[in-house]
Amino acid sequence: MILEVSAVSKTYAGGIQALKDVTLTIPAGMFGLVGPNGAGKSTLMRSIATLQEINSGTISFNGLDVMKNRMAVREQLGYLPQDFGLYPTVSAWTLLNYFAALKGITGRSERHRTVEGLLKRTNLWDVRKRKLKTYSGGMRQRFGIAQALLGDPKLIIVDEPTAGLDPEERNRFLNLLSEIGGQVVVILSTHIVVDVSDLCSNMAIIANGEVRMTGSPREELRKLDGRIWVKSVERHELDVYGQRFSILSTHLREGRPHIRIFAGQRPDESFEPAAPELDDVYFRYLRN
Ligand code: ADP
Questions:
Q1: From CA 106, how far away is CA 97, in angstroms rounded?
Q2: Number of the ligand 1 atom closest to the C-alpha atom of 12
Q3: What band does 81 get if pLDDT is binned at 50, 70 and 90?
Q4: Mutate to test the pocket of ligand 1, among 8, 22, 42 (most ligand atoms within 8 A of CB)
Q5: If you take atom 21 of ligand 1, which residue's CA is the nearest one?
Q6: DSSP state string for 96-142
Q7: Dihedral through CA 145, CA 150, CA 154, CA 158, nearest 10?
Q8: How far is the CA of 38 from the centre of ligand 1 (A)?
Q9: 212 vs 206: CA distance, rounded Å
Q10: How does pLDDT run across 117-141, given as a tens digit for each residue?
Q11: Which protein residue has the closest C-alpha to ligand 1 atom 10?
Q12: Which of residues 171 and 207 earns the better pLDDT score?
């Protein structure tokens, strides 16, 4: 299983260049695509999902040209879009049966078995008869995954799935995603970097339509070992530190700014060493 994105560019009518010469190799397993809002993540996800044209470049899945074989790709695709619209007055049971029929699972007992399995897997079995408008954000996203998993897809795309979820729902959702993993390609697009550190064996950082890095989170963290330093400073000193050091991020701790910097060695005794986090990797590539 492999998804290959080669030199893909996309300019919208109006002139916004959302993707600039994007090249990515995405193997089986969980792949994290991170970047700030407006980076081009959804544009890339929609293009891979065959829902949108690109201007140049190619996308292939297991050697199959995605743009030239839309139907064949769609049969292997599970997609949870960012704005997953629901029919508010139907139940999860009814809607998932309907989606299953659309996916070609037409035999009644097979369909019921499939739908039951997915609703149990996403922990929605007990609430299957409730109207979808009564669902919480987390329940809706889990329903979104249930529909994306219909028909045993080989390529699964989830676009910003944890935005707006509370910590418990988010955790539950990420656990569910981690169970898919394995032999299929799963692309998780997000602006929440920790989602990726918890789940993904490979990742890319994209900003302004360009790939800033692609590799393994673990490897990238290792490169920062011994190079992240923290210090609590006064608010009025921030500018001075900003000029002297490469500040990756500033957090407030008990109301005081706490800076994290990247430096080959400890600048002075006032800085404490810190274990690298994926946020450090992210900010470092975004600044370059
Ligand atoms: P992300 O998902 O990373 O937030 P998007 O792919 O949604 O990024 O957007 C990338 C850029 O393309 C943004 O500047 C956005 O405003 C623009 N864009 C997205 N969709 C459209 C569209 N349908 N028409 C015109 N511009 C768009």
A1: 9
A2: 25
A3: confident
A4: 42
A5: 12
A6: HHHHHHHTT--SHHHHHHHHHHHHHHTT-GGGTTSBGGGS-HHHHHH
A7: -20
A8: 6
A9: 5
A10: 999 999 999 999 999 999 998 999 9
A11: 40
A12: 207
